[in-house]
Amino acid sequence: MQKTALVVGISGMIGGNAARELLDNGWTVYGLSRNPTNDTAIAGVRPVAADLLDARSVDAALKDVAPTHVFFATWTRRPTEAENIQVNSAMVRNVLDALSPKKCVEHVELVTGLKHYLGPFDAYVSGGFRPQTPLREEQPRLDLPNFYYAQEDEVYAAARRDGFTWTVQRPHTVIGKAIGNAMNMGSTLAVYASICKETGRKFRWPGSEGQWNGICDVTDARVLARHLVWAATAPGARNEAFNVVNGDYFRWSWLWPRIADWFGVESVGWDGTIHPLEAEMADAPAVWAGMVAKYGLKEADLDRLASAWHTDLDLGRPIEIMTDMTKSREAGFLVFQSTEKSFTDLFAQLRQERLIP
User: Which parts of the chain sit beneath pLDDT 70?
Assistant: First the structure.
């Protein structure tokens, strides 16, 4: 039977990749965002515009949309976790409430992340909390406020009311192309390395000793997209939560110099001090403006390419973070992706599209 997807957060890295994978598999795809633009348009996706925090806006936007599957791939950041809980749960609730009278929804997928196990940013940056690794889906919720939990609870409540099934997806740091994304390590490192090359600086490790020497993993946006589409119809994925990562492990002490080699810059590893990217890239806007003019780059707004604050949070964690994928493997998802290729494929794409020199 024909499946119809509503991708909430179509303009983001996760939503955009999911939409392309759904289209490739023959789905009808609606893409919801606040302000659809030609820059983020995906051929074949039917755009829907709504303010997710305005229930009436969502009701109006979805009046003539009756998806069988809903994919939540967006969030918004607020200064406190209490505010994060309020706004991010409301976005999920408003969409599911708008669709409830139609009784069309068969399955809902919610993308959250590893803060399910780590707690909000403030809970793990100090290093006081050390979860057991590899992280496994069976680990219980923390006794901490967390907007991921609030989003899950909205999905669970609507599922009981409307009778649909659900899947929760928990990726690690997602690597892929996105413009204007708030969490974008791959593009951030590409911009940083490009600036280092342009200015003759060394590609200096910005994070902690724990991240430099510890074992890590990441999630390729393409792997997550395939996991989302797989879970939409796989019987073993119904009413389950899954970690989603590439399937390999690495240490930044190994990967960092390999990234530097790709860009032709000299790398510097952990030297006993954290050097946050936000400080390292303080002069980046001026340097980038010159590079845009010199190389004819397509994106002049550096903030739409790089999110140093979030990369600092990831690379500055004083603990190693790695996840277990056994549950997905046993349920039938066998996709694997080399993490080094996740980065180099992205770098090549950014270069080809003249987003970096």
Answer: 1, 37-40, 121-129, 182
Number of domains in the chain: 2
The per-residue pLDDT for range 93-148, each reduced to its tens digit, is: 999 999 999 999 999 999 999 999 998 766 666 556 678 899 999 999 999 999 99
List alpha helices for the chain, DSSP H. Answer: 13-24, 55-61, 81-99, 115-118, 121-124, 147-162, 185-199, 209-213, 221-233, 252-263, 277-280, 284-295, 308-315, 326-331, 339-352
Instruction: Yes or no: say if 136 and 324 are a contact pair by the CB < 8 Å rule.
Output: yes
127: closest CA among 319, 320, 322?
A: 319
Q: pTM here?
A: 0.95
Range of the domain at 199: 175-217+249-322+332-353
Could you tell me if 180 and 304 are in contact, meaning their C-beta atoms sit under 8 angstroms apart? yes
The Cα 25–Cα 10 span in angstroms is 17
Tokens of 86: 């309020």
pLDDT tens for residues 189-237? 999 999 999 999 999 999 999 999 999 999 999 999 999 999 999 999 9
8 A C-beta contact, residue 151 and residue 343: no
Out of 171, 206, 228, a domain closes at 171
pLDDT at 131: 83
Residue 229 covered by a domain: no
Is residue 243 situated within a structural domain? Answer: no
Annotation says 148 is catalytic: yes
Catalytic residue at 295? no
Beta bridge pairs of residue 164: none
* CATH code: domain of residue 288: 3.40.50.720
Residue at 56 is within a domain: yes
Contact 315, 207 (CB under 8 A): yes
Catalytic residue among 30, 117, 124, 148: 148
Residues in the chain: 357
CB contact burial 128-141 (16+ within 10 A = b; e otherwise)? eeebeebbebeeee
Q: Which of 115, 177, 192, 197 is catalytic?
A: 115
Report pLDDT for 132.
87
